[in-house]
Specification:
The complex is a heterodimer.
Chain A lengths: L3 E3 L3 E4 L5 E7 L5 E8 L3 E10 L2 E4 L6 E7 L2 E6 L8 E8 L10 E2 L3 E5 L1
Parallel strand pairs in A: 2-11
Antiparallel strand pairs in A: 1-3, 3-8, 4-5, 4-9, 5-6, 7-8, 9-10, 9-11
Chain B lengths: L3 E3 L2 E5 L4 E6 L6 E7 L6 E7 L4 E4 L2 E6 L4 E6 L8 E8 L7 E2 L3 E6 L1
Parallel strand pairs in B: 2-11
Antiparallel strand pairs in B: 1-3, 3-8, 4-5, 4-9, 6-7, 7-8, 9-10, 9-11
Classes of the chains: A mainly beta, B mainly beta.
């Protein structure tokens, strides 16, 4: 079974802090994604990566950056946390584009509160 | 650009049927369906590729109308375990990036 893990289930940070959210997958997936989930808005893509050191902006990249130094690990960085970044953050991974089995597997999520 | 799901919420009695729709204004390559139970991660249900195919997963099936850029998820003889929020994710080309709808909250009551 594919397993996607996230470093924390709950996180509380202060405004202005630098925040790191870590995601690790164990199925050798090429693609990795970061979403935020807010009530009534569904899942919105922040960034995704289709290979090591490769990244592409999603729909709401402002205020975020990412890092993918190893295939299994994808980090989301909030350079200076703000209260409007309080949200549930979900990481996902999938096989490479073009593969017939490219459904996304999600981690349990990190609920981030910025005070 | 975000696909539109309807209805936003639906309440069913056990054994009843439901249909959830997902519409896009853009041409699509595929549509994914996921279910998220309260407090859990979204879980993949099925993918539909352009071509109008219909797929099934237990008593849950889906179709994709390429001309209308619309997908429908059919839940028949609903069970309590079907409760959750259903999301469609649309893929415009074979690039792996999904844009998700806002979700449809489904509650099945005994």
């Amino acid at each position: 079974d594919v397993k996607v893990t996230q470093s924390s289930r709950y996180l509380v940070k202060r405004t202005g802090e630098k925040v790191f959210l870590e995601c690790v997958q164990d199925m050798d997936h090429e693609n990795m994604f970061w979403y935020r989930q807010d009530p009534g808005l569904g899942l919105r893509l922040i960034y995704f990566s289709y290979d090591v050191k490769m990244k592409e902006k999603g729909d709401i990249p402002e205020g975020y950056s990412v890092s993918r130094e190893k295939k299994e690990r994808f980090s989301l960085i909030l350079e200076s946390a703000s209260t409007n970044q309080t949200s549930m953050y979900l990481c996902a991974s999938s096989l490479t584009t073009g593969h017939s089995r490219r459904e996304q597997y999600f981690g349990p999520g990190t609920r981030l509160t910025v005070t | 650009q975000q696909p539109v799901q309807s209805p936003q919420a639906v309440i069913l009695r056990e054994g009843e049927d439901a249909v959830i729709n997902c519409s896009s204004s853009k041409a699509l390559y595929s549509v994914h369906w996921y279910r998220q139970k309260h407090g859990e991660a979204p879980v993949f249900l099925m993918i539909l590729l352009k071509g109008g195919e219909q797929k099934g997963h237990e008593k849950i099936s889906a179709s994709f109308n390429e001309k209308k850029q619309q997908s429908s998820l059919y839940l028949t003889a609903s069970q309590l375990s079907y409760s959750g929020t259903y999301f469609c994710g649309t893929e415009r080309n074979q690039g792996g990036k999904l844009i998700f709808g806002q979700g449809t909250e489904l509650s099945v009551k005994p």
